[in-house]
Design a protein that fits this description.
single chain, about 600 residues, alpha+beta, Creatine Amidinohydrolase, Chain A, domain 1, 3 domains, six-stranded mixed β-sheet, Creatin/AminoP/Spt16_N, X-Pro_aminopeptidase_P
Length: about 600
Amino acid sequence: MLMQTHEARLAALREELKRRGHDGFIVPISDEHMSEYVGDYAQRLGWLTGFGGSAGFACVTLTHAAIFVDGRYTVQVRQQVDEKLFEYRSVPKDTLAGWLGEVCESGAKIAYDPWLHTWGFVEALEKRVADKGITLVPAAGNPIDAVWADRPAPSPAAALPHDDNHAGRSSAEKRAAVADWLTREGHDAVVIPALDSVAWLLNIRGSDVAHTPVALSYVIAHKDGSADLFIAPEKVTPELARHLGNAVTVRDRAAFEGALTGEFAGKSVALDPDFAVVAIAQGLRSGGARFAFKQDPTILAKAVKNPAEQAGQRDAQARDGAAVSKFLRWLEMTAPSGEVDELAAAARLQAFREEDPGLRDLSFDTISAAAGHAALPHYKVGEDSNIPIPPSSIYLVDSGGQYVGASGSGTTDITRTVWIGPGEPSAEMRDRNTRVLKGHIQLARAVFPQGTCGAQLDVLARQYLWEAGVDYAHGTGHGVGSFLAVHEGPQRIAKPGGGQAGTGQELHAGMILSNEPGYYKPGAFGIRIENLVLVEERAIPAQEGSWLGFETLTFVPLDRKLIARDLLTAEEIAWVDTYHAKVRELLSPRLGGEDLAWLERETQPL
């Protein structure tokens, strides 16, 4: 029987927990690869609660239930999740351990799916609840799956070869580098569960996760340079088999657990602590293997883009810039009527992107946010939340695409904030937008010594907002993949600490990051200016040591109506004028007619 209400689903889960002898169950947004974005089959938190955000978790006991989200989703969770069913808890202030201590009696057994949590998460939680007499138990099969009657099946789509010319290195070269790492580190093999790492290592792509071109699979790479790929047989085409070659053994994904328990007795295996779930470690241990937690050796290598990947990214940015520019002109012409809503704007932007035959997908769900919705940094428009874009207001659009072309492939991510007429933006709006722009410029112009990490640069983007006594609650920059995940580690630009993974990662030439400071006035408006940047080597007169800077990759006009010129320095004005000149140079050959006239007008010197 299908359960249409979240109340019925919660009740069914509790009955299943009683049947199994569990007192509670932890429900993350996760899949067995610890992906940020997961396939429909793994959207268990959304099915149970109605929450549509990309970060958060719930815990259900026989008598209580709570959903935990961070500050990005404080408003959204209240719009989507029934407070009669789930308490709202805010992290990091509220902790799962603390909540369990409040609602559970001593002796309670809280279940978790060992395929959806890392060893470190479970170990830390066990220590924190032990003094309350609470124990964690791995569930034999996910109890939500037992009651989710119409749960979608995993995607059956075929995996595809990724052109070595686009990748810049063959899979054999990459596997050889992993083999060298295993030899240096003293391991026989490394388990690679992260989907984008599998895709990068084997030069394959797929369509199993919305907007991220990956195929559901695992890899075990060995110190002789060979690898086992565990993937559903229906996803393997003759073309893929030829691409992989004899050194990659293709095995059924269903055989992965058995390989862990039966093939590594007495051997040493490396596991990434952020991506290898409890079940993988337990499988190796039960089979007599030794394992050690170390960062997946593909992660840093994947983050440092080679010349072919950099060229593909520049090509993708030019394609994307033309589409976004067409959209901004269309928006300027049509939105002041008040007849364009958020969903229609997102659809029109997608249509402009789809005019390019190289578009394979969006890189994430478009954030199309009008008026007060723009004050929600991770707003996701749907039928229930969709509103018309009000005349005389700010509109924010954060979007991107996945592109493949003759010159390479790439992943884009851009945010533009624009004024929708008629009339003029308020002095406050112009002030806040210009402070965001000033921070964006300072980060874009930064020159820093080799060894610098993202946390050391973050204040450059915030300083002018801080001068006005305001700030933003998200990171300033995330890594971006090469025709892969739009959020890619290990690099990040954000405040140090606070659970911000990657802020201590040294930046290397070849890394791509976003530069996206913002400002958000609850219920009124939001501002974010985002370009992608490439870390590059810089030569400085009389320099001591090695120095780095950023090459801006994204080229789309900034809204001049929201810029308070008198708040900019001469150097900042020169940066904007130079940036707009590059926008005009790059995009003019790709636009014509009224679109070209609009571009030329919007890129005139300040």
